[in-house]
Design brief:
The protein is α/β, with parallel strands linked by helices and 248 residues long. It contains 9 helices and 11 strands. The strands form 2 sheets. Strands 3-8-7-4-5-6 form a 6-stranded mixed beta sheet. Strands 2-1-9-10-11 form a 5-stranded parallel beta sheet, with helices on both faces.
Length: 248
């Protein structure tokens, strides 16, 4: 069956040169964007119940922009003035760049990984005498605590925000040829919103092994997978599939 409509379970890209817009142009398909999940901050009171005293930590591990936003939100709510001596360990350049929203970059001690959490570990190891706080969501990847424990550093994880299923009830009677997912939470959102969902001719596209597992564990047929050596991005995987089915 030919592909004419696609729903991507993420916010619409803000950059004009997004590969999704190129895909729309080249393949003449309609792509809609809709977050299937969203983030909600927990209260300072909830953080306190996790026995977190911000003054006890000398370094913050930041794995995402959400972690940056919610760390400084909680600090303000708790009336904690973040000291200039605080060290920041950012998982990627994008996170480090976003940190400038809250701190004067050149005056702070900021250490930046390349992309994955594993790539940040040599920097954490170098400063193993620090007391690390990891503000995160309630859906922390298991590999993160495993790595920190292996490093034998003093650290604590605290939930500063939660991943919540979005209300998609207005999509009940809307049909798309392809649904695109990037996380197990997105799959959970689909099935929470539509417990009677029947896939039929709807194609499912997924990014990452954990998302593939979540889809198949819930009885969904995965038609498009990324990343692969041939299609390292989701847009490349979609384009390859669309070219194959639309030429028939």
């Amino acid at each position: 069956m030919k592909v004419k409509t696609i729903l991507v379970s993420q916010p619409e890209p803000k950059i004009e040169n997004s590969p999704y817009f190129d895909l729309i142009e080249r393949q003449k398909v309609k792509i809609d964007f809709r977050p299937f999940i969203h983030v909600e901050g927990v209260s300072g009171k909830d953080v306190r119940t996790q026995k977190v005293d911000l003054s006890q930590y000398t370094a913050i591990i930041l794995t995402s922009r959400n972690a940056v936003d919610h760390f400084f939100r909680i600090a303000e709510e708790m009336r904690f003035k973040v000291p200039d001596t605080m060290k920041y360990f950012c998982q990627s350049e994008a996170v480090a760049y976003y940190l400038q929203k809250y701190v004067v970059y050149r005056k702070r001690k900021i250490y930046v990984g390349k992309r994955t959490f594993q790539e940040l570990t040599p920097l954490i190891k170098k400063y193993k005498n620090e007391k690390f706080l990891l503000p995160s969501s309630d859906k922390l990847k298991p590999v993160v605590p495993e790595i920190l424990d292996e490093l034998k550093v003093t650290w604590k994880q605290a939930t500063f925000y939660k991943t919540v299923v979005s209300d998609l009830s207005d999509l009940r009677n809307v049909y798309y040829d392809i649904l695109v997912f990037f996380s197990p939470s997105g799959i959970q959102s689909l099935l929470t919103n539509f417990p009677d969902f029947e896939q039929n001719d709807t194609r499912i596209a997924v990014f990452g092994n954990t998302t593939i597992k979540a889809a198949t564990d819930n009885g969904l047929r995965v038609d498009i997978k990324a990343p692969t050596p041939e299609t390292p991005s989701m847009t490349m995987a979609l384009e390859k599939y669309i070219k194959e089915v639309n030429k028939k």
